[in-house]
Amino acid sequence: MGPVLAKKYVLVRQDSSGPLAKEIRDKYKVGRNSVTIITPDGDVLARLTNEPTAEDVLAAVDGLPDFRVGMEQLAKLKEKGLTKANAESFAAALKRVGAFPSQESRETILPYAKDDNAPEAVQRAAILALGKHPDAAAEVIPYLTDKRYPIKSAAATTLTAMGPKALPALLDALGSDNVDTRAAAFGPAAAVTKNGKLSKELGFWKTGKDDARAKALSEWRTWWEAQQTPKEDAKKK
Fold first, then answer.
1. What is the chain's percent helix, strand, coil content, to nearest 5?
2. What is this structure's pTM?
3. Which of 52, 68, 92 is the last residue of a domain?
């Protein structure tokens, strides 16, 4: 498969074939299991890692305009500094930045998501802005048990929005010794798995015996790994 022209951007997959594809792939160091979005002028706009689906790529292309506007807005706001007066403007800018699932976007948002001293509206908006960034799942998990309802609610919403790619981090949380962490992780994990027999019930993860939970978690991880196998097999063909 050669480079694909999507609107105004060139999409290059790591497995793109043909002389032109190989030249572009080598020049821009397109990584394994990834897609790189390049402008016709040769500028790298984003590197989508972690086996992006066609939907992921289209979402990235559609999110580019918002991302650019959001980054411009954020730059201007940062000159003035974050205050309660401009908190809503910061929140709106972060939402736009998050529309584009890239490393640059994620690294821009995370400091605000982790800033417990920021206005609550900004921290909440930053967490919600990570909904298209499953690579940040492990960094959102701690906020599932935040004492502030708007923050923990945002974390649960975001982890669910991340979809199945957030599951490894959620399963790690279900293996926690902390009952509150397990209870908070159950909802998003069950929602993205969509298999009640596998996920069981909330009460099981709160009070079930250690060995029973460990066995159930192992089965859940095995199921998750099996979901990835078809992708790996398809690449070998």
1. 70, 5, 25
2. 0.80
3. 52
